[in-house]
Structure formats: C-alpha cells, structure tokens
Amino acid sequence: MSTVESQLLQQISVTEEKPQHSKRNVGLVLVGLTGGAAIGLSIIAAPFVAPALRKVCLPYVPATTQQVNNVLRALKGRTGTLVDLGSGDGRIVVAAAKAAKLSGVGVELNPWLVWYSRWLAWRKGVSSSTSFMTHDLWKLNLQQYKNVVIFGVEEMMPDLESKLLQELTADGCVVACRFPLPTWQPIAVFGEGIDTVWLYRRPNDYAVDKRKDHESFVDNR
C-alpha cells in the first residue's frame, strides 16, 4: 500500500470516529442538563408539593374579590389582631389592614407565597401592620389572636373546630370561607355559593351574644 493510500485510510478512520465522539459528548451534555433541570424543578416545587403530602391538603386557591369583601364585612367593627390560617398570597391580611385597620398575621407553609405576601404588603403600604411567616397552622397557638380567618377544605374543618374550641379566646371570632365549621352555629352569613363567609363565636358564648348585639342573620348581598 502506497503512502498516499495509507494517509487516505487514516483520514477516513478519523472522520468516522469524530461523529461517534460528538454523539457521545452531546448525549452526556443532554443527560447533565436534564438532571440539573430535574433537580432545579424539585427544589422550586418542593414547597408546593410538601403541603399535599400532609394528612390534610390545604391548596393555594386565591380568594375572589367578592370573598375578600365578604370577609371584610364579617370583620366590620372588630378590633385586635387578625390571623389568616393558610394566608396564600396575603390578600386577606393586606385588605384587612387597609380597609378595617386591623393588624394581621399570615400563616402559610409555602415560603414563596410568604415572600410574595411581604412584597404585596410593602407595595400596598401596610408592611408595618402586617407580618407573614412560614409555619404549620396546626402548631400555632391561637390564643393571642382575636380574629381568625380560614379558607379551609372540608376534610380539615372538624379538627380545626376542635383546635378553635381549645384555643380561641372568649371574645374571639372565626371567619370561615368556602366551608363552614361542622357543628358551630354561625352568628352571621355573608354572600352565597363559593363566596359564602360564615362568622362564628365560641359555642359557649353564642347564647349570650344572641341576646346582645350579635343577632344571627343571613346577608346574601
């Protein structure tokens, strides 16, 4: 075999090997990118997925404008600190601080929503009278709050009712949205359908309240 033929064969061999190496390199890059993206998505999604893995899932569903208005009507004339259990994007706490002049605390498991809520409060000019924390609502002592707001799910309401009975102060009130408490009797109901809001006082105070200024009524405006 001549020298020229040998050189041609070597060039052909090198040319055939390059695509194989190139394919392997591209494959490794794609695997690396896919793995990195999966890890990144897991980190970002973890705060959203974690609540769903708990016994009772409290999903993030933003309150409608009508729901917010109904909550504000239920809180009319109230004083003291408000706590929103599962505060989501913070709109209830912020609205109560602006419209009802109530200082408020938002309790939310999702840290991304907590950070957004703090930004929203700052943007609306009520950051000094509001606060938001990443916390499990079941581990929060409610005795320090006179106004409790909850956008719950049906499965959690019996356990929440027991917690409220143990921890809610005598002059405290509960504003339940979307689902009522299973056995307590509301002293007022605002709205209808998915926008319904129920206002409660502790059962042992209910009879006294009816004789005073909290006559039970239904308002479907």
From TrEMBL:
The chain crosses the membrane at residues 28-50. It is a single-pass membrane protein. This is ATP synthase subunit C lysine N-methyltransferase. It comes from Penaeus vannamei. Keywords: Membrane, Methyltransferase, Mitochondrion, S-adenosyl-L-methionine, Transferase, Transmembrane, Transmembrane helix. Signal peptide: none annotated. It is found in: Mitochondrion membrane. Belongs to the ANT/ATPSC lysine N-methyltransferase family.
